[in-house]
Design brief:
With about 450 residues, the protein is of the alpha/beta class. It has 19 helices and 18 strands. Strands 2-1-3-4-5 form a five-stranded parallel beta sheet, with helices on both faces. β13 and β14 form a beta hairpin.
Length: about 450
């Protein structure tokens, strides 16, 4: 007898039923394994290459539902078929929720068993390859290197289309990793300035003593080490776009000169006495709260309003999960080509974990994870390839709960700030005595 490639594990505490099903499976040329308890079944799953699990639900000690849950967690690629002599809607729903693909009621004929097995193996094969339909990266979901499928994405593209051919200053705000530079590139390279320079400046990556020289250039001999005249980044971007990333990190001394550049459309090199006219569009980005910085005096208010003619606020990935599948597909395709691993797929369970995770590092973190998954997998990314910190991530509300004491202290500090730290006046407003107020802010 020539056996098929599928190995089937049958689990039932009734030995007569086990023998019956085993004989039927052998008549269909399947290799069979059997277990009379959940613990025994788990040992078989661990030690053997099983392609289909058939389990009774009602067993002593540990029931079939617990076996399904265990198998779904540890062997998600194995399709699962349930058999039971006590049919009920509750049992069916519970089994399906626990990972079963189909449900067969005892007694059943040999033909019914065979058909159900074939259906389960077929469903399992589709899941193990890729059971999540990726959206096509068509024109509606892809724009100048940006990809998405959410209303946030469509709103972003609409803003870019409106501002791209203007010279208006644009401020792009949002968390790290949300694609602020990609947005700036999309604005430039879809505009009429696309054939002109696009210069990126990381304001937090240049030493404070050098940033002025880097931005505006310098004259030979203007400071130690200035051995020749140097053109600054603003001049290099003339006719095109300069992108000032992390503008909140620019020192106050540089902020003053940036204000002059925006107002007068001219720069003054370090050591020079004569300003030079420039024609450049300015895009800025920050992951800081510039309004808070203005209040604290660490960012100039006049500069803030100058750079914030058009405001774009990026949405963190956790708040636009509709874009996840598009981005996952994009990065799998990107790194599959890079490593000559064509047609790398991802199965449903792996997708579920990625969808459940909150992505604090946003798109940058997602891309890094997919990069790793493509390297570590062969042709299909499965649950086994997912990093442990993503698998066991606890999904919780973004709300941070505080104690009443913390809320009290916050309110007291706000009132104190409003009355210039006059504790007597603050105590009167809060309707507590001055001694209590002092104790509560300690």
């Amino acid at each position: 007898m020539t056996f098929k490639k599928e190995n089937i594990l049958v689990v039932d505490d009734n030995n007569d039923m086990l023998d019956l099903i085993q004989r039927q499976l052998k008549s269909f040329h399947y290799r069979t394994y059997k277990a009379s308890s959940v613990n025994e079944a788990i040992e078989v799953l661990k030690s053997s290459d099983i392609h289909l699990l058939i389990s009774d639900l009602n067993m002593p000690n540990i029931n079939g539902i617990e076996l399904l849950k265990y198998a779904e967690e540890h062997f998600p690629a194995i399709p699962k078929l349930v058999i039971s002599g006590i049919p009920s809607v509750y049992n069916v729903v519970n089994a399906m929720k626990s990972g079963a693909l189909d449900y067969l009621t005892k007694p059943f004929t040999s033909e019914e068993l065979h058909k159900t097995i074939l259906d389960s193996l077929k469903k399992g094969a589709s899941i193990s390859k890729i059971s999540t339909n990726f959206p096509d990266l068509n024109n509606e979901k892809s724009y100048a290197g940006l990809h998405g499928n959410s209303s946030h994405f469509r709103d972003l593209i609409e803003i870019i289309k409106r501002v791209k051919d203007t010279k208006a200053n644009v401020l792009i705000e949002g968390e790290s990793g949300t694609g602020k530079e990609m947005i700036a590139r999309a604005i430039h390279f879809t505009s009429k300035l696309a054939d002109q320079p696009f210069i990126v400046v990381n304001c937090g990556g240049i030493h404070e003593n050098l940033i002025e020289s880097e931005l505006f250039g310098h004259i030979k001999g203007s400071f130690t080490g200035a051995s020749e005249n140097r053109v600054g980044l603003f001049q290099s971007a003339s006719g095109g776009t300069i992108f000032l990333d992390e503008i909140g990190d620019a020192p106050l001394s540089v902020q003053i000169k940036l204000l002059r550049v925006i107002q007068e459309k001219e720069i003054l090199r370090v050591g020079a006495t004569k300003p030079e006219k420039i024609d450049v569009r300015i895009l800025c980005a920050t992951n800081s709260n510039l309004e808070d910085m203005v209040v604290k005096g660490t960012f100039r208010e006049d500069l803030y309003y100058r750079i914030n003619v058009i405001s774009i606020r990026t949405v963190p990935l956790r708040d636009r999960k509709e874009d996840l599948l598009t981005l996952i597909h994009l990065f799998i395709e990107k790194y599959s080509h890079e490593y000559n691993k064509l047609n790398v797929q991802i199965n449903e369970k792996a997708i579920e974990i990625l969808m459940r995770y909150n992505w604090p590092g946003n798109i940058r973190e997602l891309e890094n994870v997919i990069h790793r998954l493509v390297i570590m997998s062969d042709d299909t990314i499965t649950l086994d390839h997912i990093p442990e910190n993503l698998k066991y991530h606890i999904h919780s509300s973004d709300t941070v709960f505080k104690s009443l004491k913390e809320y009290e202290k916050e309110q007291i500090l706000k009132v104190l700030a409003a009355v210039n730290n006059n504790k007597t006046k603050a105590a009167q407003i809060l309707q507590i005595d001055r001694k209590t107020l002092t104790q509560k802010v300690l």
